[in-house]
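A student in our group prepared the protein record below, which I am reviewing. I have pasted the whole thing underneath without changing anything:
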Amino acid sequence: MKVEVKQGDVTSFASPLLMVNLFKGVKHPGGATGAVDQALGGAISKALAAGEMEGKLGETLLFHTDGKIPAERVLVVGLGEAEKFGPEEARRAAASAIWAAEKLSAKEAATIVHGAGIGGIQPQSAAEATAIGSLLAAYRFDKYKEEKEQQKPRVENLAIIEREAAKIASFKKGVKRAEVIAWAQNLARDLVNEPSNAMTPVEFSKRVQEAGSQAGAEVTVHDEAWIQEKGMSLLWGVAKGSEHPPRLVVIRYKGAGDKAPWIGIVGKGVMFDSGGISLKKPQGMEGMKGDMGGGAAVAGALLAVAKLGVKRNVLGIIPAVMNSPGGGAQNPGDIVCGLDGPAVEIISTDAEGRLILADGLSYARELGAGYLVDIATLTGASVVALGTKVAGIFATDEKLEKLLMDNVSQTGERLWPMPMFDEYNKQLESTAAGIKNTGGRDAGAITAAKFLEHFTDKKPWAHIDIAAKEMADKPYSCYRKGATGFGMRTLLRFVERWEG
């Protein structure tokens, strides 16, 4: 979808569909919506008085203009309660409007910016939120669908209309930024949505390299021979049961000077997780193609950082593997030494994500990262604790934790802090090695994080568990059913705001 900012009056702008808004409880709309209402002879106010619309977030109501204004139809979208309104609500309102426009077969539409008036959001941020919500909502993954499904109506052109000339430049900046962010997040969604027979570790690395060349980021891919020679045996141990060889994807972006610190961000890239020898139950296993959601989020975030020219030094490390129970697979009871850190006793081969992340964190440190973040679809325990819309954050550094959590008002990606008491290490004690790869059922999300902490060398570090957040089982926020790209915008804003 192409998004353009145009100066004009909504009551004189010609479009097949004009989208305006109002807050919950409003009976007589003002601003641009009020001007449209007046031009339509009070039709919107009459509908509100009749209870046809409350203005709840995402609620829509359609009006035919009958030639009273150049726009053929007007769609009013609800913004919800004014006191709860922010960028996430602006995105959700824009998404609802796009989905309604698709149902109306509108290939072209015009909209006002959501939240730039009494919504209280700065003009550039409001335009960014409106554009991102629209672009994320317009995303579809239908390449394997029949042709008739691919030809379902979609909005191809969206005009953002603003009457005041003084706001146009800010709106254009917001839209330009939104286009980069939506491109990166939709790339992450593509990577997750692909089936594992197409999205192998090799294919994943190729896609990231191709996107990296567009974004201006340096992308290096290491093959299985390099991984073994390097001594990344935790990574290799997970990968060796599959016929699909692993890859280690390294994204490097130097946006600051030589003396500026490096941030290392590691993303779990398990292209499909069968559980290995500790085989998963078959119910729902098809969803395990999304077990590389953390790696996809890191790829999207790093490429957005590069494309936006952020003045930071940042490394992205993505170990890409298949976890399969082939003849060469590692077994429970094996003891493995990785690139750094303690020897690991393998208790469950289904606790594989932490193994590849451990080598990834060690390598990020080796490359000079002084601050570490990792993101992964790591544990079912985090889903039991927090559900499918909130990710757990486990941190050893308050500054990292605060910066990551403070992004929720801008991204809508909610994080919740989890305890990291040293007592949890008792569950990881091994009689045969330095540490076990799982601490049992109790506090499983926390012990997984405590395992990873052993490979950070006490560097400032935060771990984000996004299990069940990488895929939506039904539409919500700006997302259709399928991959969300959760975490991508959180990581981007974290890097932008990081001061070392």
In short: The chain has two domains: 2-181, 195-497. The chain has 16 helices and 20 strands. The CA atoms of residues 255 and 312 lie 5 Å apart. The domain at 195-497 is CATH 3.40.630.10 (Aminopeptidase).
